[in-house]
From TrEMBL:
Regions crossing the membrane: none
Residue stretches making up the HD-GYP domain: 142-338
A molecular function (GO) term: phosphoric diester hydrolase activity
Domain of life: Bacteria
Gene3D superfamilies documented for this protein: Hypothetical protein af1432 (1.10.3210.10)
PROSITE patterns the record matches: HD_GYP
Name by which UniProt lists this protein: HD-GYP domain-containing protein
Cross-referenced Pfam families: DUF3391 (PF11871), HD_5 (PF13487)
Amino acid sequence: MLKKIRVDQLTLGMHLKEFCGSWMEHPFWRSGFVLTDPKDIQAVRSSSIKEVWIDCSKGLDIPDGEVAVSAAESDAQVEAELQVMAVSQRVVTPVSAAEEMDRAAQICFQSKRAVTSMFEEARLGKAVDTEGAKNLVNEITDSVARNSGALISLARLKTADDYTYMHSVAVCAMMIALAKQLGLDDAQTRSAGLAGLMHDLGKAMMPMDVLNKPGKLTEAEFKIIKSHPVEGYKMLRKSPNIDPAVLDVCLYHHEKTDGSGYPKGLKDQEISLFAKMGAVCDVYDAITSNRPYKAGWDPAESIRKMAEWTHGHFDPKIFQAFVKSLGIYPVGSLVRLNSGRLGVVIEQTGKSLTMPMVKVFFSTKSNMRVVPEVIDLSLPTTSDKIAGREDPAQWKFADLNELWSGLPKSPW
């Protein structure tokens, strides 16, 4: 018997099946477990969640004399109710990047916690809960629908220590944006997002000293790291009802169109659409992120470098769609305008890949800061244009990320 109860009715020994509310509102990245720690009950009660579903066949029932909010005979009834609730709570109206930043930062924070837990459970040999991960993907999908640049750009602001976990979040968001750009349907888009989220799960089985080594890997160490797609595949295929796209991207996201990739050295047509998408998103986030052994490249510089690698590495059509989804000058790129002013890209305009919205803040003519001003380069009344990229490492603007995100230096 499945029962919906108030959170104040929760007791140790109950099997918590589902939360009645948004994934963002409760303190756990997944449901479907027996409550064994009083702190978990307190965490639920301290959240905004008011009701939960329990499974009395897998845990304790409410005491005699207490009344449940409602009951259900099957999982399908619970799922139907939760689906209706989820649809009513969804907000996917397009907004500006500035409006989405706070929400995106919250999603990044929650996602990092969820992925960290996912990796820790994988290290312990526990089955991967892909159903719980779908809730996370839904939140990321909605954020990308509201504004594709906000969460993708924020997820790039990871520390070297956070890289493994936040990399999964970033690739998930980019896979969703790329799927939309390619015209994939909603189900395919969510499959792409879930695949991006789970693609590096095999790294949970890698030795931490090798995974986080601050220098160049030896040949033996690189061989170990190259085993992560197969290790992830082995773990994921044990999960019930696993999405085939998740398995495919996990195993083949390091394949290259010229056959020089791994683990199987597949060539162009032998690599699936989803795996080709995963390859592009994986590389972009890797080269734009700070790693234990190097600082990340500027987003615009990364796009330029990847364009040079397209022949033999990426599928050209997939890469072109990827650039359209992010822009030639992605959010966070430092650019010089024809006027001699420097600015940071804060949002794409949708009108031209070379005419984003830029926050100007520095004059190279006077070599000093100016009052920040947002300029939409796509407007016919705007005479200034982008003259080229600038290397942030040379200018050393300590607040560059705060300028484009509008958030504190460490948003999560």
